[in-house]
Each structure stands twice: as C-alpha cells, then as structure tokens.
Design goal:
The chain is α/β, with parallel strands linked by helices. The chain is built from 16 helices and five strands. Helix 6 links the parallel strand 3 and strand 4. The longest helix has 24 residues. The chain binds zinc ion. The site of zinc ion has 8 residues, from helix 3.
Length: 372
C-alpha cells in the first residue's frame, strides 16, 4: 500500500496519482501550505511512487527502492535544506565537505529523524539559509541520468530559505529541464519565493489537516489516549508537526495555569492577577502565549459545552469538577462572548501585538463577559 505515510491530503494524493498514471508529470512542483501539514511527507511519497520497482501508481513500500527512499538513502532522491557554512568554505565546494565533525553529526541526526518521521522539522544549528553550494550540487546531479529507470527527485524543503544567490542558481536549473529529473519545492511562505521560480512550477496547495485527521493520527501513530488526542488536535491548528510538539509540552501543568488565571481574574485579589498578567506576557515567545490562550479558550469552550449539552464532547474531561463548579458559580457567564475575545487576542498575538497590552485587554474583557 502506498501514500499511507501521508496524513489526509486526499485531494493532492488523487491529483498526483492522476499525473503519474497519465504520464504528465511536471518538471517542477511547488507544494505550498501551512507548516506541518505534510508537504515534505507527500514529496517523499511522490518520489517513492516514481521509483518503486514493483508498482507505478501505489508505491509498494517493500521493494529495495521504496525502502531506500524511506531511509532517505536512495541515489535518486536528494533532500535539500538549510545548512551551516563550513570553515573556509569556497564557492563550488561540496555543501557538507567543509563542515566540522559536530556539524556533520547534527546533519546526519536530523536526516535520521526526518527518515523516521517525514513530518519532522529539520533544524541544524547555525543553518540560516539554503546555500548556493547546495543548489550547485543539485545542478550537477540533475544533469546525470537516473538510476534503475526511475526519476531523480530533488526536494527543496522550506524553499523560502534559499538566499538570493541560491534562488538565481535554482532558477537557471529549472530553465533546463531534463527528462529524468523532477523538482519539488516545499514552502509555507510562498510569497517569499522569486515570482520567476513560482511561474516555472506546477502549484499544489495543501490544506490544514482536520481535527479528526489529527486526532486519528495521534492515536494510531503516537499511541495518544483519545481525550488527550482530541485536546491536542484542537490546539494544533491543522499541523501534525505542531501536534507532535504539543505532545512534548506539559499540558496538565499549562492547563492548570489557565484555570488559575480565571480564578485570579474572578476572585477579589488584584495584585496576584497583575503579577500573573506580567508572567504570561513574559512567557518568552509568542507561541507560548498563544498556546496559553488556546488552552484558556478550550477550557471556556468546555464550560459552554457542559452548560448546554452535558459531559459528552468535553475535551478537559479530567477537569469536570472544576468546570461544574465554575458553571454553578457563574451561571450567567457570557461564555460564547468570552471565547470570541480569546480568539481575537490569539489573532493579535499573531499580528505582533504588544503582549502585556494584549493580555491585559483580554483579562478586562473576560472579567466583563464572565462575571456579568
Ligand atoms: Zn516499491
């Protein structure tokens, strides 16, 4: 069975299958859409389908070629990503030739993680952009013919990380199509690519994954318990990579903090609340503040679900006691309005709003909505 390593994205899978069966494969593709929705995973799967020794449309997953692609060790597959600049690296050098042993080990480890999980986000220390030497290397290899009658597939992962030199070099390569080579650029920031590169590519848009798809993947791939999977799927914004990152966060403690905030907000103690606002605004990075707000939102959503429909469908089922006592204490809380305020604040965090102001504004709005 093929394509099963990619979660959801049925529209794209269908399209690629059709392209393979009709033999109308474009020379260059641009897979674009949010972070962690499966663009790289799909690119690897596409490479597998194009090189499988057994089956043309549905990669078998077991032949020597499929297995080598899974391990990212097939000579027809080249995964290009940002790398650090080596000591005394010269133009035209092998892109990894002048890296230190530590840097090389880090690259190897990242490739191992990516092979294990194609949704892994490759991050090599001090790798700020895709180097010209990496693209020159691609250019050299694209001129060679493919092994074993397959296709050479070059995946430029997070293509927006190419610097100007690398972009221009890639553009030249894309202008010299060879029948054996396929290029797949992946990006979550299409607008940062050269328009001339975009115009040479077949564009394929990836949608965010649904909460059901994420929940199902977390249960079947990561052994996450059903309620926990539903909660993470709710917070992950359609991204499996984000969902995996959330798995490593101490959600129990973070949820407790969100509840504590509501307690302080609706209690009589002004000073601890001010301290708490300061602490949240200073959580370090925007994504931490955003996560805190989402947890707060999920908790309020649960209070609303419990009040209107009962226990069925609660995401924080383990907080049933707290939720019940909240609803008893504040029977006329405007929960839907409070949820809207949380959503609006999350949007402000994303738009670079000044955090202490956003959190304070949210606190005032919530107090008004909940304690009415
Ligand atoms: Zn195969």
């Amino acid at each position: 069975m093929g394509w099963e390593r990619v979660i959801g994205q049925h529209r794209v899978k269908e399209l690629l299958r059709r392209v393979i069966s009709s033999g109308t494969i474009a020379h260059a593709h641009l897979f674009w859409g949010g972070e962690g929705v499966g663009k790289d995973a799909m690119a690897i799967e596409f490479a597998r389908a194009l090189n499988c020794l057994e089956n043309k449309l549905e990669p078998c997953g077991t032949c020597a070629s499929c297995r080598k692609i899974d391990l990212l060790q097939h000579p027809n597959l080249d995964l290009v990503f940002a790398l650090p600049i080596g000591k005394n690296e010269q133009s035209g050098d092998d892109p990894v030739g002048s890296l230190s042993e530590d840097q090389l080990n880090s690259v190897k480890e990242q490739l191992r993680l990516k092979a294990e999980n194609p949704y892994h986000r490759i991050e090599v220390p001090k790798a700020n952009f895709i180097k010209i030497n990496s693209v020159r290397n691609v250019r050299r290899e694209a001129a060679l013919s493919a092994f074993e009658g397959g296709k050479r597939v070059f995946i430029i992962s997070n293509a927006e990380e190419m610097n100007a030199e690398a972009s221009n070099s890639l553009l030249k390569t894309l202008e010299e199509p060879s029948s054996d080579s396929i290029f797949i650029l992946t990006t979550a920031q299409k607008e940062q690519l050269l328009p001339t590169i975009i115009s040479r590519c077949q564009l394929l848009q990836f949608d965010p994954l649904s909460e059901e798809e994420l929940q199902e993947a977390l249960i079947s791939r990561n052994g996450v318990e059903k309620n926990q999977a539903a909660l993470i799927a709710r917070l992950a914004h359609g991204s499996y990579t984000s969902a995996l990152e959330l798995l490593s966060v101490d959600m129990v403690e973070q949820r407790q903090e969100a509840v504590q905030f509501l307690r302080l907000l609706l209690g009589a103690h002004k000073i601890p609340l001010a301290q708490e606002i300061e602490r949240i605004a200073g959580l370090g990075d925007r994504s931490a503040v955003e996560r805190w707000m989402k947890l707060l939102g999920v908790w309020l959503r649960d209070a609303l679900v419990l009040r209107e429909q009962g226990e069925e469908g609660l995401l924080n089922l383990d907080h049933l006691k707290d939720l019940t006592s909240f609803n008893q204490k504040f029977p006329r809380a405007k929960l839907a309005q409070a949820l809207e305020r949380v959503e609006a604040s999350i949007a402000l965090v994303g738009k670079n709003g000044y955090l202490p102001l956003v959190v304070t504004g949210l606190a005032i709005d919530l107090k008004r909505s909940l304690a009415s």
